[in-house]
Design a protein that fits this description.
By secondary structure, the chain is of the alpha/beta class. 19% of the residues lie in helices and 32% in strands. It has four helices and eleven strands, in the order αβββαβαβαββββββ. The strands form two sheets. Strands 1, 2, 3, 4, 5, 6, 7, 10 and 11 form a nine-stranded mixed β-sheet that branches.
Length: 160
């Protein structure tokens, strides 16, 4: 599916919400899109893994990690699980690790930064609830589009 976030903004105006340009590209795909699924966690990636172990069906996992950079919520092992299960992309409001391995994966990944420290494993957090960061609320079932120019969110699918 070819698209440009700039074109989506031009064509759909205020029907798209533009995420603040806080995120760096870490994945092997420069652009990705799909329906949103969400996870809210703090320095604990058990729910991130659980989500990525489900069939992705082209969805984008949006992880609200509270912008913590103290631990990584995603690494190359979880990226491989995402690819295997058909996820289109992952947006992490927090840190990732294994940057070289993430770049080699065939999934789109945006995050704030890297951190070599692994996360906790208590399984605390929430799944598939609206999360807000970067000036945008991400609601499960809405659609996310990301490319080299940024990330936009729409209440409805903008592409066939």
């Amino acid at each position: 599916m070819a698209f440009a976030t700039t074109d989506l903004c031009d064509l759909h105006g205020t029907d798209v919400r533009v995420v603040e340009p806080l995120f760096r590209d870490f994945g092997g795909l420069a652009s990705f899109a799909g329906p949103i699924s969400t996870v809210r966690v703090l320095e604990d990636n058990v729910l991130v893994r659980a989500a990525l172990e489900e069939p992705g069906r082209g969805r984008v996992l949006v992880v609200d990690g509270g912008a913590s950079l103290r631990t990584a919520l995603l690494g190359d092992n979880l990226a491989a699980i995402a690819v295997q299960n058909g996820w289109s992309g992952i947006v992490v409001n927090g840190a990732v690790r294994d940057a070289r391995g993430l770049r080699a994966s065939t999934v789109g990944i945006r995050a704030l930064a890297t951190c070599p420290r692994k996360s906790g494993k208590k399984g605390e957090g929430e799944r598939d609830q609206p999360v807000t960061f970067g000036g945008v609320t991400f609601t499960p079932g809405e659609h996310l589009y990301a490319d080299e120019d940024g990330i936009v969110v729409s209440a409805r699918a903008l592409l066939p």
